[in-house]
Recover the amino acids of this structure.
């Protein structure tokens, strides 16, 4: 009898240990970003937001479950394009004109498999719309990318504001000042496994 009890305990040990583990976001190795575009030839200007938070569950039993339950909130004033002067222009002439001073959303579908097209419910400037993102989920690494048209989020005012402020800076080789309403959203996340010892 003792032999069987010892065997059960031995087999149950790893299961009990795994129950003590969870996945959470490693913010030191994660980034929420975007690519805006200027010039007729559509040159990208990449940037990121340094202040964002998970407003849904902060832990999950697997990396996939964490992504599926993701709800987030972004402070747009934390914009960082590696150019302080440009960042201030974006804050004053774009984000300051938003009716709602935060960006939020949640994952509403994540198909099975390690890559594909997921759906995000994005709330921007008080307007909420579903957005398709292509994604990859490999082990503890998750990345996603997709385009939105900010004019579909009732952002004509902010769009005109940033175009006017950057009119000369957005003149390309053809002499035409062009600011695109298309913005690419990017997410690169590292999910770390944390186990109680």
């Amino acid at each position: 009898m003792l032999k069987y009890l010892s065997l059960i305990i031995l087999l149950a040990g790893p299961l009990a240990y795994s129950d003590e583990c969870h996945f959470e976001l490693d913010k030191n190795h994660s980034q929420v970003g975007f690519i805006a575009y200027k010039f007729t030839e559509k040159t990208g200007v990449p940037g990121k937001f340094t202040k964002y938070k998970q407003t849904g569950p902060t832990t999950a039993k697997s990396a996939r479950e964490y992504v599926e339950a993701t709800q987030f909130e972004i402070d747009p004033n934390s914009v960082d394009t590696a150019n302080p002067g440009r960042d201030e222009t974006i804050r004053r002439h774009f984000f300051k004109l938003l009716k709602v001073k935060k960006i939020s959303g949640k994952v509403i579908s994540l198909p099975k498999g390690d890559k594909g097209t997921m759906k995000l419910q994005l709330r921007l400037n008080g307007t909420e719309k579903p957005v398709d993102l292509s994604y990859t989920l490999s082990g503890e690494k998750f990345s996603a990318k997709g385009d939105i048209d900010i004019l579909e989020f009732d952002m004509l005012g902010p769009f005109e504001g940033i175009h006017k402020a950057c009119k000369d800076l957005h003149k390309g080789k053809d002499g035409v000042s062009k600011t695109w309403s298309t913005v690419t959203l990017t997410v690169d996340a590292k999910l770390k496994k944390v186990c109680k010892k």
User: Anything to note?
Assistant: The helical segments are 2-19, 63-68, 84-93, 156-165.
